[in-house]
Write a structure and sequence with these properties.
Keywords: Signal
Order of helices and strands: HHEEEEEEEEHEE
Strand order of the largest sheet: 4-1-7-8
Number of helices: 3
InterPro entries: CarboxyPept-like_regulatory
Shape: globular
Helix content: 10-25%
Signal peptide: 1-20
Protein name: Carboxypeptidase regulatory-like domain-containing protein
Distance between the termini: 60 Å
Largest sheet: 4 strands, mixed
Number of strands: 10
Length: 156
């Protein structure tokens, strides 16, 4: 009976890799030709398995979940234009790595870095408004709350 159960689990891990492995998270920043963050861009990552989709936040940051190791085509839709890039993820790549895309012409040029763009965005937001406080991180995206100004009324 134990052998049968082990065999079933082994078959399931190959047949349904997402059950055996949560997958890789492709994350980074999308910038324009002038290195300004591109907000509200759609990011689609397509490889051999199920595609992953994401949207950039106001800092140009994105996260695409559930990817397996391999090669992918990345399509970014920003301001009505389509940009295409490529990325390869290896099992030997560090887990904390960021995949940044710079939009130029019709291409999304990839830069791979260990620089944490999410942390950089938090630091910049706090620098821009010293009255802000960081409440937490939800799915890797930054939630920054601002201290009320004198005379502000609470929202009901």
């Amino acid at each position: 009976m134990k052998r049968l159960l082990l065999l079933v689990l082994l078959i399931c891990s190959y047949a349904f890799p997402s059950l055996a492995h949560q997958g890789f998270i492709l994350s980074g920043q999308v910038t324009d030709a002038n290195n300004k963050p591109v907000k509200n861009a759609g990011v689609k990552v397509v490889g051999k398995l199920t595609p992953a989709m994401a949207n950039t936040n106001k800092y140009g940051l994105y996260q695409a979940f559930g990817l397996q190791w391999g090669s992918y085509e990345v399509t970014i839709l920003a301001d009505g234009k389509v940009y295409v890039g490529k990325v390869s993820i290896s099992a030997t790549d560090p887990l904390k790595r960021y995949y940044n895309f710079k939009l130029q012409g019709k291409t999304a040029t990839l830069t791979v870095t260990d620089k944490d763009m999410f942390r950089e965005a938090v630091m910049q937001a706090v620098k821009d408004d010293p009255n802000s406080r960081i409440d937490g991180v939800r799915e890797g995206f930054i939630e920054i709350h601002y201290a009320p100004e004198e005379g502000d009324k609470p929202v009901k």
